[in-house]
Design brief:
Helix content: 25-40%
Largest sheet: 7 strands, mixed
Structural class: alpha/beta
Number of strands: 12
Strand order of the largest sheet: 1-7-6-5-4-2-3
Order of helices and strands: HHHHEHEHEHEHEHEEHHHHHEHEHEEHEH
Radius of gyration: 23 Å
Length: 459
């Protein structure tokens, strides 16, 4: 929608010379293509100078027009800025954009992916509560669940086979108030069927929280498969350039908080008899996002810098272009590694040799992202030799960068895990995790071929 169209829709008479120009509250980009929406959705015209790029609002607080507006903002009667910990105009554009791309009703930007996961879960859980998670999730998330949430009196159990309905049923308790999973787990690329897990969650009146970091909404949109809340470490593919930390929480706006027998008191109950609850004020579509912004996110303060919010917006504008190249390179590398004579195994769901191949074809058309793993012979020494002989691949713990990255999980991301837990998760000493970037494919193959040659020479 053009500016002129927006003004006409708002009832502006463009022929009246000197008439005030009323800026529409926001443009509605529903019905436009993904690529168009990743560039335009959520932004507002900048009235001061007509800047085409969203300005960076480096202000920790914002002036109110008068006494009444101050009161109304704090009472929640009027939307708008209070303080940058709560809402920042720069970050708000990224929030609206990711909500649009994921098919949600609202979103909140925070300081990191870990902040997004912890904020979402702290909005659902309190001391004495319990939640479930699939076992094959990012190691840092497991540490958050076991250590940080455990210290708060929140218990977690892990489901090792998400396909086993009986395992879910055995672990769900009356105190279970959330289920968590990832679309494409890191590092093993052992994908999950969100619709199947959502069915179990909803049969028990439990909201499903899905981490969509590795897939991004370009490859899959979990809300369309039944997820209720989506989280991202937007530090990764959404930002895409390894330049700034950020996290996002997206409200699907579909979970029936009033109907479930599980109690989410701060969201559904009146805290004062005369003050409507979040659910009464904002309805099912917006209750969780508004509630979370004004409680867990505001109270614990995982605020996103507006500069990093700006970097996130810049990354979102090129998401589809980058993801196509990421996935094309990853699929080619996975296939090449699968045929390499000394590579013991490749964990990429898009390969015909993967046990998840049929699911990968159905959900992703075989394009299951660009973070996967392979195993070299020689255990830790084999891994050491390969890592030390890489030149194009960077030795880094990040993923989703434009650059290709490699790391040995057994000595880094999963180092704190017991040997028994690493073994059960399939974290072999010789496992190498790759995050495949945007470089020339032939250069990536040559780099890995040289490193694998060095491994072969040690055998």
């Amino acid at each position: 929608m053009s500016l002129a169209q927006g003004e006409q829709a708002a009832g502006i008479d463009e022929t009246a010379v000197g008439a005030p120009r009323v800026i529409p509250a926001r443009y509605d980009w529903r019905g436009f293509g993904f690529e168009t929406r990743q560039i335009h959705s959520g932004e507002l015209p900048e009235p001061g100078h007509g800047s085409r790029v969203t300005p960076i609002h480096l202000s920790n607080a914002f002036r109110f027009d008068d006494f009444q507006q101050t009161w109304d903002r704090f009472a929640g009667v009027e939307d708008g800025q209070l303080y940058s910990r709560h809402l920042n105009p720069t970050n708000q554009v990224a929030e609206r954009r990711i909500a649009d791309l994921e098919g949600g009703t609202g979103a909140i930007a925070v300081g990191s992916g870990t902040a997004a996961i912890s904020s979402a879960l702290l909005g659902l859980l309190e001391s004495g509560d319990h939640f479930l998670s699939t076992a094959s999730i990012y190691s840092g998330t497991q540490v958050l669940f076991d250590r940080a949430l455990g210290r708060l009196g929140i218990e977690v159990d892990y489901v090792w086979d998400w396909r086993d309905r009986d395992e879910w049923e055995r672990l769900i308790r009356p105190s279970t108030k959330a289920i968590f999973t990832e679309t494409i787990p890191n590092p093993k690329n052992d994908i999950t069927d969100i619709a199947a897990i959502a069915e179990i969650a909803h049969d028990h009146g439990i909201p499903l929280v899905v981490d969509n970091t590795v897939a991004t909404p370009y490859l899959i949109r979990p809300i369309e498969h039944g997820a209720d809340i989506v989280v991202h470490s937007s530090t990764k593919f959404l930002g895409g350039h390894g330049a700034g930390l950020s996290g996002l929480i997206v409200d699907g706006g579909r979970f029936d908080w009033a109907a479930t027998s599980r109690h989410y008191g701060l969201l559904t109950d009146r805290q004062k008899p005369e003050v409507p609850s979040f659910l009464e004020r904002f309805g099912t579509e917006h209750a969780f996002e508004r509630y979370l912004r004004l409680t867990a996110v505001n109270d614990f303060g995982p605020a996103l810098s507006s500069f990093n919010g700006f970097l996130l917006q810049q990354g979102l504008e090129t998401l589809s272009v980058r993801m196509d190249r990421h996935v094309d390179n990853a699929r080619a590398l996975a296939g090449w590694l699968d045929e390499h004579p000394i590579v013991r195994s490749v964990d990429y769901a898009g390969l015909p040799s993967s046990p998840d191949h049929a699911l990968a074809e159905r959900l992703y058309g075989g394009r299951t992202g660009s973070v996967f793993a392979f195993t070299v012979p020689g255990g830790l020494e084999g891994a050491r030799t390969l890592i030390d002989n890489l030149q194009v691949f960077s030795r880094m713990t990040n993923i989703g960068d434009t650059r290709s990255l490699a790391i040995n999980p057994a000595t880094t991301t999963h180092l704190s895990f017991s040997p028994e837990r690493r073994e059960r998760l399939g974290i072999d000493p010789g496992l190498i995790r790759l995050s495949v970037g945007l470089e020339t494919l032939d250069d990536l193959i040559a780099d890995l071929d040289g490193a694998l040659g060095a491994v072969a020479a040690r055998l």
